[in-house]
Amino acid sequence: MTLESPGLGAATDREALPVELVDERGRAIGACPVAEAHTAPGRLHRAFSVMLFDAAGRMLLQQRAAVKTRFPLLWTNTCCGHPAPGQPVAEAAAVRLHEELGVAADLAEVGTFTYQATDPGTGRVEFEFDHVLVGRLDGFAPQPNPDEVENLTWLRPDQLRAALTHSPEAHTPWLARVLEIADHAARSRG
Q1: Tens digit of pLDDT for each residue in 31-80?
Q2: Structural domains of the chain, ranges and CATH numbers in brackets
Q3: Around Cβ 132, how many Cβ atoms within 10 Å?
Q4: Which reaction does this enzyme catalyse, per its entry (predicted)?
Q5: Is residue 132 within 8 Å of residue 182, measured between CB atoms?
Q6: Less Cβ around it within 10 Å: N or C end of the chain?
Q7: Cβ distance 144 to 99 under 8 Å?
Q8: Of 134, 78, 135, 144, whose CA–CA distance to 105 is shortest?
Q9: Does 131 count as an annotated binding residue?
């Protein structure tokens, strides 16, 4: 199924796309549509979160678009999404990075974690086995897709930690874990 987006041509109905259901260890056990996986109480499925860094060590954050079905207008990592069943996570993340921000970067997976959170505004549930990927963005200006991204900002890890402490309600519930894993990986690599 496709939807027409003004000025953007046909776009895929993301809620109808399949996601890969997984067990608590991240092993594939089936598939279902995005909308079903995010309906309470939620079904554990594979996801990814990308965090891009610049040469100064700042991280690119996005404010999710108002039309998002889960956690709209909250600040989060550079981009996130779901691989199709059987699709390599890094491949899916690279595609999503281009769809949301119009950029490409070499991505490396640096960790995983599981979380579950209910969006109080929409009642939708995130129950995800999340793969964290990091990359570096140098020399490319993001071109955010307005259907996906409301706003962008670059922050140092310490600035993001302070923002998460002072206004956690302005950020997605998974962002603190993504920050922890991505920042640790960046510091380990020097």
Answers
A1: 999 999 999 999 999 999 999 999 999 999 999 998 888 999 999 999 99
A2: 17-188 (3.90.79.10)
A3: 27
A4: isopentenyl diphosphate = dimethylallyl diphosphate
A5: yes
A6: C
A7: no
A8: 135
A9: no
Q: How many Cα atoms occupy the beta-carbon half-sphere of 79 within 13 Å?
A: 28
- Backbone phi, then psi, for 175, in 5-degree steps? -60, -40
Respond yes or no: is residue 128 known to be catalytic: yes
Task: Report the pLDDT averaged over residues 10-24.
Answer: 84
Round to whole Å and give the CA distance between 90 and 107.
7
Look at the block and give the residue holding tokens 């997976």.
109
Active site residue 79: no
**24 annotated to a ligand binding site:** no
Out of 128, 148, 150, 180, which one is annotated catalytic? 128
